[in-house]
Every structure is written in C-alpha cells, then in structure tokens.
Amino acid sequence: MIIALLLVHGAAAVAAPLLVRALGRRAFGVLALAPAASAVWALTRTGAVQDGHGPSEAISWVPSLGMNLTFTLDTLSWLMTIIVGAVGALILIYCSSYFEDDSPGLGRFAGCLTGFAGAMLGLVTTDDMLVLYLFWEATTVLSYLLIGHKTTSHDSRSAATQALVVTTAGGLAMLVGLIIIGQSAGTYRISEILASPPSGTAVTTAVVLLLIGGISKSALVPFHFWLPGAMAAPTPVSAYLHAAAMVKAGIYLIARFAPAYADLRAWQVTVLSLGGATMLLGAWRALRQVDLKLLLAYGTVSQLGFISMVIGAGGRGAALAGVGLLLSHALFKSTLFLTVGAIDCRTGTRDLRELNGLGSRMPLLAGAACLAGMSMAGLPPLLGFFGKEAAFGAFLLGPQHHEGPTGSATADVVLLVVLVLGSVLTFAYTARFLWGAFAGAPGKPVTEVFERGPWLTVIPVVLGVSGLVAGLAATWIEPLLAPYAEQWPPPSHAVHLGGWHGFNLALLLSVLTWAAGSCLFAARTAVEAGQARLPHAYSAEQTYRLLMRSLDRASLEVTGAFQRGSLPLSLGLIFTVFIVLPGSQLIWGGVTWPDEVRWWDNLAQPAVGAVVVVAAIAAARARRRLRAVFLLGVTGYGTSMLFLLHGAPDLALTQILVETVALVVFVLVLRRLSGKFPDDPSPAVRRWRALLGIGVGAVTAGLALTAAAVRTQPPAASDLPRSAVEYGGGHNIVNVILVDVRAWDTMGELSVVLVAATGVASLIFLGGDAHARSRRLVRSSWERRSSYTEVGGAEGSGSRWLAEGGLVRPERRSTLFEVVTRLIFHTMIVWSLYLLFSGHNHPGGGFAAGLVCGLALAVRYLAGSRDELLAAAPVMPGLLMGAGLFLSAGVGLGAMLAGGDPLQSWSFDLHPPLLGEVHLVTSVFFDVGVYLVVIGLMLDILWALGARLDAQIERDADDPSAQPTLHEEARP
After folding, report:
1. Which of 181, 310, 333, 745 is the most exposed place for a label (fewest CB within 10 A)?
2. Are strands 67-72 and 907-910 parallel, antiparallel or unpaired?
3. pTM recorded for the entire structure
C-alpha cells in the first residue's frame, strides 16, 4: 500500500499543472487527497503498529547494490506519516485561498508541493538506507524549487541556492556514513542494523557523518542560517517544509538511529552540544525580530535544537518526550506560520511595528494563534506543555536517581539548565509574537483588514484546536508513542507524557520559565536595546558567503590557469597527467610485466606499423593543413590494415569508413581556412610536443602489456562465438554485441549522436534555428532548380551524368567525376543494404552500412554540389535521425509488449517463395534504426559543412568585399 500511495503522489504531482490550468486554485483541494489518503491509511493501521505488526512491503530493485524498495510502518514512521499527510493536506487546502488564479507558476508550485509530500512519505517509511538517501535528495531538490518559487526575486533565488548547497553538502556526507554503516553491517536494511548495530572506529566516523546530514537538514548550528533565509518562500512552503516536514527529516534521522548509537560519545557530543547551542541562539535571535515570519523562523531553529537534543539524548523518558515534542511542534508551528500568511494576505504587512488591533478584527485567527503560542511556550493544557514537562522529567532523572539519558548526572544538569534557559527565551519570543500580531496600542491606527478566502482562517483554527485536543488527550496518546521509547531499557522511575503528575520539580521548573519569560517580555525594550549594543560577531551566514566567494574565486583562477581556450594547452595538460600518473605506476608501482612478448605474426604487421609511425611523425611536422590531414588519414588506414591482419575484418571495415568520413569532413572545412597552420611553434615547443607524444605512446603500450600480463580470469570473449549464435542468433560477434548483448549502450550512443548532430549546425553557424536554416536552404535549392528548368535549363539539355549536373557552375564541373559518380553511387547504395542485412553473420551492420550510404551521398554532393545532394536525398536529416531512434526504441518496446525483456531479440527461420531459407532476427530492425540515424548524421554534416558553406562561397564570389567567416549564417 505504501508503494501505491507513493505512485498516487507522483501521479498527482505530474497532473498538478493540468489540474491548475483547468480548475485554477481549486485544484489544490483535489491534490490534497493524496497526502490525506496517506494520513488516513496510517490511522487505520494504528492498532497493528502499536502491536508491533505494522505493514511492510519489499520489491527487489537493484540487487547488485543491495538496494530494494522496502517500506515498513513502525511507531516512528507512523507518527511521521500522519504529520506529513495530515498537515500536508491541510496546507494544500490553505493554498486555495492563499494564491490567486493568475499567480505565476502556480501549476509548477502545486506539483512540487505535492511531490514533496510524496518524497517525505517515502523518506519516513523506507527501510533501506540507500533508498532513504534518494528520497532525502528528492526533498532537497523539491525544496529548492519551492523556496525559489518567485523566480523574478533575487532574494528568493539566493535563498533557494543557499538551502540547496547546505543541505546537499550535508546529504553527501550522510551518504558516505550510510555506505560505511551498510558495508560494516553487511546489509542496508535499517531494521536489521538497529537490531544488531555494527561498531568500531569506522562506524563511529560514519555516525558523525550521518549526523552532519541530519543537522544540516534540520538547520542546527552551524548550518542554522539557511532556514531564516528560506523565509523568502511563500508562507505555505514555510509552514510545511520548515515547520512540519522538511526540517523534521533531520530530526527523523536522529530519532531513527538513536536506539543504536545514542550511547556513543561522539553522538552525544555532536547532538547535545549543537542542539543546545541552536536552542539558545535561535531563541535569542528571535527576540529582536520585527518581521513575524522571521521571528517564527528563528523560533523554529530554536525548537529544532530543543527537539534534537531531547530525542537524541537516549533513554526511554527522553525518547518519549522527544516524539511528543515532534508532534506538538508540527501542530503549533504550522498554525503560527499559516497565521502569519493570513495576516500578510489580509493586511499586506508582517511588520509587528505596523500591525495594531488585529485581535478584535480577526478573533478566530487570534484564538488559534494563542492556542498554538501557548503550546509553543509550554503552557497547560496544550500538548507542548506535556512534551516539555516530560523532557524536564527525563533530564531530572540524572541528578535525582542517576538514571538520566546521558549516563552522567553532571551532564544531565548542564543540559537541564540549557533547556530551562531556552524555554524562558521561548516564552518571551512567543509573547512578543502574539502581542505584536494581535494586541492593540492606544493612539495608533487600527490595521485595515481585507477579505480573502475562508481557508486562511479555517485551517489555522483546525491546527490550533488540534494542539489543544492532543494536549487533553495526551494520556491516551502516550501508549501510541510508547513503542518507540520502549527500545531503551525501562528506568525505575518512569516519565509520562500526559496527565497530572502532582507538584514536582519539573512543574516548578515550568513555573520558573513562565515567570522569567514574562519578566523578559516585560523588559523587551531594554532587551532590544541591549542586543543592539552588543558587538555583532562574525555570523555563520557570513562564513558561508565568504566560503562561496572563495570557491568561486579559486575556480576562476584554476580555470584561467588551465583552461584558456587553447586546444594545445588543454591536450598538453591531459597528456601530462596521463604520463605522470599511470606512467609512475608502470615504473615504480611494481606492476607485472609479461614473461614473453610476441612482436608480430607475419612481416606485414611490422611493415604496416612502420608506415603508420612514419606517417604520424610526418603529420606532427607538417606545416600545411591538407598535408597533415592526408598523413593523418594514412595512420587511420594503417590502423585498419593492422585490424585486418589480426583477423578483425569488421573492425577494419568500420575503421576505414570512419577514416574516410573524417577525411571528407576535414576537406569540407579546409575550404574556408588558410592553407597553413597559423601558429609557428619554436623549436623548444616542438621538442616538448614530440616528447609528450612519445611519452603517451610509451605509457599506452606499457598499459596494454601489463593489462594482458595480470589477467587472472579467462577472457570474456572466449565464450562469445558460441553465445553469439545461441543468444543473438548471429555469427558476427561484434554486431551481436552492439544490437543484442549491449543494446542499451547502443541506444544511449544513438541518443548522443542525435544530440551531437542537432548541435553541429548551431556550433558552426551562429544565430537562429539550425533546422529552420536547413529547411530554408533546401527550399532555396528547389526554387533554384525550378527557375532553371523554366528557362530551358537542365530539363531540356539532353542526357546528363548527374540528375542536377546542369545546375553546377561550369568552373566546378568535372566530367570524369560525374561519370565515376554515376557508375558507383547505386553500387554503394546496394552495398550498404547488403552490409545492413548481412551484418548479423558477416562483416557489416547498421553503423557500417549507414557510413557507406552516407559516403555515397557525399560522392553525389562532391560531384554536383547541394542541388545534387537534394536530388539524391530529398529529406531533412532530423527526420531520418528521429525515425531511426524511434525505430530502435520501438524494438525495445515491442519486446516488452511481447512479454520479453526490453530490447530482447527473437530468431525465426522462414521459407518465403523464391528466396529459399531466410534466418530472421528481430534485432535487424534495431540495426535499421542505427542505419537511419547514421545516414541522418552524414546528411546533416553535408548540409552544415557542405551546402551552407557553398552558399557562403557563392555569396562571397558575387560580393568580393564580403569577408568570409565560418560563423555567418547562409542565407540563400
């Protein structure tokens, strides 16, 4: 059921923009059904969870990583599911009154908020640590989008980026900790780790890394600064993410692993010290805020420190108090944030210095806020009071009965003092909030209130009353939360969450906090003045900004030093690193060298190798571009000859075709470049380049030799001749690998080819849409052909060797070339089809066949220019590439529809009339898709580097004053 609920959230998030477009802001009410369903489902499983038989689901996902979609519902996840679902549903309904129908980006906002609810549901219910991390990062990304909802606001974008950087950095540290714990335990199941937690130095380090993720998410010191900055988000985001859900993820993580590691000294020092510091710092900063939302933000920071300190301390009493505070905080803080949103919407301000008399103008909202404020300040009979009383009682067990959560009476007393001081400050800033928002001051104009939707008042009232009801029912709530606390041994003196416990020291401390908090509020003017006089220390946010500026500066300096836009410099750095690192291992790393090296099988191999070496040296020394391209081609053709001599005809064929295509591309580009290379390096630079080349070759050869010498298992290729026939139904091992064994890799390569081809024209010709320019060029060629025909041109000039040969300028025509083209073009097309359909058993395949067909089109273009190319292939390149990718993907989809695995192949032996026996493998259709993509790529290259450059050349010939440039759009 949990997986089904996650799918419902995902579907709702995807459909949200459409719903908002159709229903406007009323769509939020429909979207609220998804989190509401989660809360209702969790409530229906209350009895099973309390008995320890909560529902669980498991689906194998990535077995090689030990990652499974495992979900379970225990007491802690049950509580969090109710909080995330119920509060999330109410806030979505609240949004229907908070926003207007024409609010920009409302559909995106609705989808992100619904998706966030689903991500939190997955985070708190998963029993797999790796899946927990995935949901963790999903909440990070969605919170970034929600905080940055106002895309035109610099403050909003800056706050979103700040939250993203801080929480992502903490999440990465947490991931390392999760992996160490998982590897040490031999499992990534959280329940199994908690049942038998691993130990050791590595695990202790991992626990600290885990806590870094939790404290960054929950905005504890020193990561507390991102939460007040995130108040740039719309108020519903603040109420949900920063009060009830996202920041609770860190608290949840601490609570989840506390039963296993709360007794570690590293855990106690980290959680208790940072939690206490956060509680005091956040509350102190809240006392001087005049923006109601910012006041609540710092109050949230303080409360998160309070909860993390209590729930992470360990011990049954502290654990019970912690989960009670977890629930009460979600209720009162979401109420208060939504109250601020209502005030802002209905008055246009959140500044408590400008607000006056809202208590009488908005009595229901004021009542709800007072109930929530009383819970936050720890006043009875609200749930916050009972949670705080239980926390006091848990830490009093140390000095009274030596049964405190830390195991040290002194430490318990220190922490108790921190709790009392933090509670005093909490009472004071709560009073500041309520007084500033709703009190009336004589002689000051009453703030004008505008009417808005009813949900702005109804939802805060529901949440505020819920805190009161939960407080009155605390005695009945305690048994529901007790199973979580029962993971610790029972103390001789129990701590209870609800009910009257008589006059005791915990109650005395509560009365003390109320009295001291009242005095602090009464002296608020003097407190504000005292805070203003205090020197401002260097804040954590300033440290963050300094760090980010330093990183930006360092990256700029490194980029400026090593990436200057110089290709020789970039290649030189790459080659140097390659020589230094692997080369040093070859020399001093104690590598294993082969006992025997067979230099050649026949004399043809060293002869071809010598030719390749000589051509490579000559290419490096060439000063003219065309000569260098020719010599480079010799090295490529020589390599293909070596493939052939080693018995790899398929590789040899592909290498020859690729080298030929490269030569064509080089020649097309060289038409617009000077004949010589522009640089004339000094002799020292030449020697350095030569040494670099020799070093790279030597290291590559050494790696090849050592790789063969250290083999411990038989080669994977030894079984390929048999498996190629049995698995792929073909004898060409290379082609079977491409279209069967590693078809997914080929699909990815096709996608990359498509993207690369799409960007070719854009990289060469700047400005406008590349495909639109290609269409204009095709249309221009057709118009040119038609006009030429109408005046008695090509169509009436008798026989021609080329279809559009009459359109070629006389100075560019070559009768010999035209004759040869007519003789070989159709043969090349037929050969490409033969390679395509025979490639499963003989050298060839879709890639080689597509190159042959593309070269045939290149021959037609070279013989007759762009009009001849259009006559040979009157189709847009993008259409061919898209059809090819669609066909290849369709083969995979067809296999799934037929009940097989994606891209699975089937073999059939057919006996059609006249053709005899035909062995058909369905992967041939995948190969046809590859064939079309390669042809489309070749056609795109010929249009970009050929036809459009022709248009430039012709225009330059007609206008000699024009300066030729490769970055100029061809406008025929």
Report:
1. 745
2. unpaired
3. 0.74
